[in-house]
Amino acid sequence: MTPSPPAATYFRYLAEGHFKIQRSPSTGEWVFYPRTIAPRTGATDLEWVVPSGMGTVYATTVKRMKPPIPNINIAIVELDEGPRMMTHVEGIAPEDVAIGMRVRAKIANGPDDAPILVFEPESRT
Amino acid sequence: MNAARNLRGKTAFVGTATFGCGEAPGYSALEIAAEAGRLAVADAGLQLADIDGLFICLPNDFLSGLTIAEYYGIRPKMTNNSRTGGSAFLGHAEWAMLALDAGLIDYALICYGSNQRTGAGKLVSAQAPSPFEHPYRPNNPAASYALAASRHMFEYGTTPEQLASVAVAARQWANLNPEAFRRGPLSIEDVLATRMVADPLHVAECCLVTDGGAAVVLTRADRAKDLAKTPIALLGTASATWHSEIAQLADLTVTAASESGARAFAQAGVTPADIDVANLYDAFAINTILFLEDLGFCPKGEGGRFVESGAIRPGGSLPVNTNGGGLSFCHPGMYGLFTLVESVRQLRGEAGERQVRNARLALAHGNGGTLSSQATCILGLPETI
C-alpha cells in the first residue's frame, strides 16, 4: 500500500465528490480526523471507507456576524459510525439547529475555494 | 501515589506580583513580563541573580525563556518554555516543584506578560489552526466554549441566567479589587442584554482582552521560611491533557480538570470541602461551571444551580475568582498565572477589601486550549503542611 498523507487525501476525495473517512479493519474503529495511526488503539491499518453520511447534532452554536452578513451555524456532528466533526448545519436558520437533530452530509464550497463537508437536516431531503 | 504524596509542602510560593493589568500602552509583552518578574523577586526579598530556574511562555515569542534570561542578564540552570495555553504556568509550578525538590535549582521564577489590548487590539491565540476546523471559520476560542455550553444546557438544563450569574459574581468581586479593569454594577439582565458572540455566550460572558503580567517565585520550604513574606506551601499539583480541538473531546460536559483535580487533591491530602477560596480560569462563563463540577465542588450537572445560588459571590459559601477573574479583573491572553497570584495574595491576607477571612487553603486552576489542558495547584498556609 502506498502511504498517502492523511489530511491531503481527505480533501482530495472531497474535491472528487466523495466523503470518505478512515476505518481500522483490525479494531473495527472508525476514525476522524484522518491520521497515520488510529488514536487510542494505535492501529496502523487504516483504510478509506465511505460512511453512511448520516449523523446527529451533538453540539451547536451560532457565530454572530455584523449585519447584513448572515449568522453562521457552527456545530459538532456525531457520525452514525461514531466519530465527531466540526461542521456547518445548513438549509435551516442557524439558531434553529438543535442538539439531537438528524442530519445528512453534503459537499459544499468552503471559504478557501476548497470543498468542505457540511450537513443538512435529514427531513429536508 | 506515595511518590506524589512526598512532594506535599516541600516547596512554597515566596514572591508574587502583577504589572500593567488593564492597559500598559507602549510596553512590549516581554517588558510587561520582565517587570512582573522583577517585582515578584523583590516581593520575596531576593535578587534577580538568585533566580536559577526560569519558567515562562510569552504569546508572541516561542523562545521567550532565552529572551528573558538575556533581558535580566542571568544564566539560569533550567529554562522551561512549555506551552499548554493558559494552564502552562500551573504546569510550570509542577516542574519547578520537582526541580526544586531534586535540588537542581534553588529559586524558580514563573512569569508572563502580554500587551494584547494596546498592542494587538484582540485576543492573541498561540494555537495552530486545525485543517479540520479552520475551513468552518469558528470564532474561536468563543465558539468552542459555546459548543461545550450548548451541550451542558442540553444535558443538565443549565440556563442562560445561570451562565450570566458567573459573570455577575466575577463583577461583584472585581468591584472589591481596585486593580480590576471592569468595575461597576452588573446584573443578570445586564449580562443577557449584551451582544451575543456565539450562542449561548454573550460578550459579558467572554474574557476581557487586556494587557497585563504576573509572576511568582518558588523555593524549597527550608529556604522559604527565611524570606520576606509568609511562605505559601504548594501542597499538591497535577496536570492532564485530553485533546486539542473541541470536536475531539469525548464528552463536552466533562474536562480533564476531573483528573488533574483528583490527583492534586490526593497529593495535598485535602478535599474540596476544605478549600477556602478557589481561583478557576474563567475564560468563558461555562468554564467556571465545568470546573466547579470537575474539581468536585458540586456534583456533575449542578454547576449552574450552584452559581445561581450565590455560592461563589462575595459572602457566599465558596469564594471563587476573588480578583474578578478573566471576566472582570484582567485577561491578557494566557491568564492562568493570575489564579496562582490571587491564591497567594488571599492566603497571605493581602487581598484588601476582597479578603476572604481566615483563608487557609486555596485552589488555583488553569485551563489551556479549548478546555484541552487542565492544571490544578492546591496552596496552603504553613500551618496546613
Sheet with most strands of chain B: 9 strands, mixed
The level-1 CATH class of the largest domain in chain A: Mainly Beta
Poorly predicted segments of chain A: none
Reading off the top of the CATH hierarchy, the class of chain B is best stated as: Alpha Beta
- The string of secondary-structure elements of chain B, in order, is HEHEHEHEHHHHEEEHEHEHHHHEE
Summarize the largest interface: chains and residue counts: A-B, 28 and 29 residues
Q: Write the CATH fold name of the largest domain in chain A.
A: OB fold (Dihydrolipoamide Acetyltransferase, E2P)
- Spatial strand order of the main sheet of chain B: 3-2-4-7-1-8-11-10-9
Shape of chain B: globular
Mean pLDDT of chain B: 96
Instruction: Indicate the percent of residues in helices of chain A.
Output: under 10%
Percent in strands of chain B: 15-25%
CATH superfamily of chain B: Thiolase/Chalcone synthase
Task: Note down, in words, how this protein is organized.
The complex is a heterodimer of chains A (125) and B (385). Chain A has 2 domains: 1-50, no CATH class; 52-125, OB fold (Dihydrolipoamide Acetyltransferase, E2P) (Beta Barrel). Chain A has 1 helix and 8 strands; from the N terminus they run H-E-E-E-E-E-E-E-E. Chain A has one helix spanning 6-15; strands at residues 21-23, 30-31, 47-49, 54-63, 72-79, 84-87, 102-109, 115-121. The model of chain A has no long low-confidence stretch (mean pLDDT 95). Chain B has a single domain (2-122, 207-384), classed as Thiolase/Chalcone synthase (Peroxisomal Thiolase, Chain A, domain 1), CATH 3.40.47. Chain B has 14 helices and 11 strands. Chain B has a 9-stranded mixed sheet with strand order 3-2-4-7-1-8-11-10-9, sandwiched between helices. Chain B has a two-stranded antiparallel ribbon with strand order 5-6. In chain B, helix 7 packs across helix 11 (285-294). The mean pLDDT of chain B is 96. Chain A binds chain B through residues 7, 11, 32-33, 58-64, 72, 74-76, 84-88, 95, 99-100, 110-112, 114, 116, and chain B through 130-133, 135-139, 143, 146-151, 154, 195-201, 245-248, 252.
